[in-house]
Amino acid sequence: MEAVPRMPMIWLDLKEAGEFAFNAAVKKSAVSVPRDFEGCSTLRKYLGQLHFLQSRIPMGSGQEAAVPVTWTEIFSGKAVTHEDIKYEQACVLYNLGALHSMLGAMDKRVSEECAAGAFTYLRDHFPHSYSVDMSHQILSLNINLMLGQAQECLLEKSMLDNRKSFLVARISAQVVDYYKEACRALENSETASLLGKIQKDWKKLVQMKIYYFAAVAHLHMGKQAEEQQKFGERVIYFQSALDKLNEAIKLAKGQPETVQEALRFTMDVIGGKYNSAKKDNDFIYHEAVPALDTLQSVKGAPLVKALPVNPTDPAVTGPDIFAKLVPMAAHEASSLYSEEKAKLLRDVMAKIEAKNEVLDQFMDSMQLDPETVDNLDMYNHIPPVLMEKCAALSVRPDTVRNLVQSMQVLSGVFTDVEASLKEIRDLLEEDEAQERKLQELLGRVPPAPGSPPGLAEVSKECSKYLELHEKASFTNTELHRAMNLHLGNLRLLGGPLEQVRAALPTPTLSEDDKQVLQNLKRILAKVQEMRDQRMSLEQQLREMIQKDDITTSLVTTDRSEMKKLFEEQLKKYDQLKVYLEQNLAAQENVLKALTDANVKYAAVRKALAEVEHKWNTTVQTLVASYEAYEDLMKKSQEGKDFYTDLEGKAAKLLERARAACQASEAHRQQLLERELKKQPPPRPTAPKPPLQKKALDEVGGPEAAELGSL
């Protein structure tokens, strides 16, 4: 796998700057940066100096020195203006993350981690209402995309370095986890509406990567099982890897050639591993192959992180050009309070993320989708793909009849050819038999002029035609078998829709089964409600922290009273924290109820899965029969053309065979008469028998009888 082509990565466009009443030279160097690491350095310096400026001059929203700041919004291209210097900082920070994402797509993992760090700082320290491209949902999506791509780069390096299989599997599993988080964000209706048309492209690529890297993880788990000589486990891991890779291939339609090359390369590796492992286990080791869900799941190893952003780091920003402008005591106190708020947010988020991780793992293991948990609606109608085939046949009512007639004509020509070739073969065999019989009587047929020509050529051509007929006969048989296989399905598709619907399997559920389904769906709705409430409370907390500015109070507060003021101000978050604690505590009971409901649902789920499999198989079979029609007609016509040509040749050959056999018979009669004339004359004392009788007597015994019959 170390030579597998690299998958393409997602990178973000930079925002374009508009109006900002600032020094033109500074603005030009800050918003028109080169697309390289020097550009990243310039943006960091500019960000730091903006922070120093904002801490001294009241340029924030609603403050005395605020000026209009304009930037374009990425997805719509619209100009967005705010009179807030923090908006300028936020846009510069966004561009820093976007530029790192661009460099990361072309270069090293560290750029992806820098991008994730920039977006994380932007999400946690700035308002989300500035513009759509800097909303909480979009920034969280960007963070998970960047971390996933950074982990993906680390995975590539680990495979190149031939790290241990279990470690590679865990790294790959973590890639899957990051992309699943990104995919959840992409599937969110609000996020999708914000992203616009780019959402579909990103979602397709991320979904394909989820299955692809899950396949890579199970490939390396299979390698680990191989190293531990657990040959049954090896087979199931390689089989799972193959299944997931096939899903990735289905989702990769329309992706660039680099993706297709990576998938083909990986299919060669995994396919070869699976075939070899299965063959070895079947013929050598004979170990039981366990079910995949009985084996320990692969837990991801997050070995990348969002690199922190410190806008006041002098090593990055350079010297503070506004150092002599104003004292910073009040702003230092405000920064301390901001750190207290950040600490509160980190503590709360650590609890939320821990619970979310448990919830996500639990729901992934359950494999329960509230939208399709019973999928009963699908059985109430004929699927569109089948309706399309029925509609196509409804305007071609002679489809079945044409196919049957075509095959009948083919059978007739086939039979005629077979009869002609059989007659030729019989004539040749009869001629050979007569020739042998004459040789037995006369001992050896002496060479004679006028020997009948043509039999050898006829025999050679007959053998050639028989060989062609025999090969074509197999094809003809297969063609008839295929026709018989699809004929009933074509009749069904061309009939009333009620018959088609009746041919599709449908589940039969008892009242108890329906009650089990309703209970499960009710609890799944509770799980979603708990998720939504948790996200809402988190958003409220973030917005409350963003708006919490006590700078005015700090100016009038004695330095010795700062700690007490902080404690009093932080109490405003207590109520939200209580609500969050209640939400997190309820998770255990909800998951327990879901576990119990899922146990009762197991039998119903199995029955529904079996019916769904039969339903899908039936649909696929009917569609395949429709698609096979044109091929059958084409091959039938080719068969008719072939046998019509062969029939003409066989008829001509039959005439030649008859003529050659007649000439051969005449030649044998000449030989016989010649031999009879060679017999000695009769003795004088004996009665004179007929000439032919005398010759026969002198030959004597059975030979005479045979000559007489000839």
UniProtKB/TrEMBL annotation:
Pfam families reported in the protein's UniProt record: ALIX_LYPXL_bnd, BRO1
GO CC term, one of those recorded: endosome
Alphabetized UniProt keyword annotations: Coiled coil, Cytoplasm, Endosome
Underlying gene: Ptpn23
Compositionally biased intervals (Pro residues): 679-690
Annotated source species: Thryothorus ludovicianus (Carolina wren)
Protein name as catalogued: PTN23 phosphatase
Stretches assigned to the BRO1 domain: 27-359
Cleaved signal peptide residues: none
Composition bias type Basic and acidic residues, residue spans: 665-678
Main location: cytoplasm
Region (Disordered): 664-710
UniProt keyword annotation of Coiled coil present: yes
Cellular localization per UniProt: Cytoplasm; Endosome
Gene Ontology biological process: early endosome to late endosome transport; endocytic recycling; protein transport to vacuole involved in ubiquitin-dependent protein catabolic process via the multivesicular body sorting pathway
Coiled-coil regions, chain positions: 414-444, 520-547
UniProt cross-references to CDD domains, sorted A to Z: V_HD-PTP_like
